[in-house]
Write a structure and sequence with these properties.
The chain is built from two helices and no strands. By secondary structure, it is mainly alpha-helical.
Length: 91
């Protein structure tokens, strides 16, 4: 009788572990995808910046690049924000 209970507990533990492994595996896959995407954007660096919303002229016909508007520190901070978002998706 005790051996039957022990075997049943083992089967239950294996099922629970398998279920958890699937859940954890899905989370790891999603985390890996997010990190890879962020790293690919950082590698491309040039051309990955959003519109600055600023213009060289009053008529707003000549858009200013992100780098010209915010400088190299602004570009660096933008790329750091991409990495930060990948590391902390809920924040």
């Amino acid at each position: 009788m005790n051996s039957d209970i022990y075997k049943a507990e083992q089967k239950l533990s294996i099922r629970e572990a398998s279920s958890c492994a699937c859940c954890c595996n899905t989370e790891l896959v999603e985390s890996n995808r997010r990190m890879r995407s962020a790293l690919e954007r950082i590698v491309r660096w040039i051309g990955e910046f959003p519109e600055s919303g600023r213009f060289w002229n009053q008529e707003c016909t000549r858009p200013m690049s992100y780098g010209a508007a915010f400088g190299s520190n602004g570009e660096r901070d933008y790329m750091r924000s991409i990495a930060r978002e990948a590391l902390n998706p809920m924040s």
